[in-house]
Amino acid sequence: MSVKVSLQAVVDELDALMEGWVAYLNAKTGELISLSEDDRMLAEHEVDPEEDTPKWQQEALPKIREVCESEDYTALPSKFDIHEYAIMENFCYSIDDPRLRGELLNAIRGRGVFSRFKSVIHSRKIQNAWFAFKRAALERIAIDWLEDNGIAYTTEGRRA
After folding, report:
1. What residues pair up with 26 in beta bridges, in sequence order?
2. How far apart are the first and last CA of the chain?
């Protein structure tokens, strides 16, 4: 029997994703786990006790293999699937003040987009608006993914 998965937990996992990491959900238990590219590569190979594999990694290997080999775990959307740049651009266009909107749009052009964008939202003190906008976008992505995969979810305990 499947459990209802916490939408907030899925969104939190998507928000915390780093490059090279994949988050997985066990729809039967609601467990979320993130694995690095190194974890996944390690799971594909037999670990030789003679190798310089740290003890903590050897201890985690059975769980890593379970996630990689079990059909109970499904990969959540990756950083690539989330398109954070598009979310930033949509945020820029959502700003009513034409000057601020222009400043934000200028910040997301060329090299160093993410650091310039971060600098502008902090200097203009609109980081809370950005975080709320990004969270709502991640929530839409999570809901679409959960529904596409036939996974029941609950919104109880959601952040306000």
Report:
1. 73
2. 30
Domain containing 121 equals 80-135
Domain count of the fold of the chain: 2
Using H for helix, E for strand and C for coil, what is the string for 57-111? HHHHHHHHHHHHHCCCEEECCCHHHHCHHHHHHHHHHHCCCHHHHHHHHHHCCCC
User: Is the full-model pTM beyond 0.70?
Assistant: yes
The pLDDT-based confidence of 117 (bands split at 50, 70, 90) is: very high
Same-domain check for residues 16 and 33:
yes
Q: How many CA atoms lie within 13 A of 147 on its CB side?
A: 6
Residue 48, Cβ density class (10 Å: 0-12 exposed, 13-18 middle, ≥19 buried) = exposed
Q: Find residue 36's DSSP bridge partners.
A: 21
The length of the chain, given as a count of residues = 160
Please report whether residue 41 resides in a domain: yes
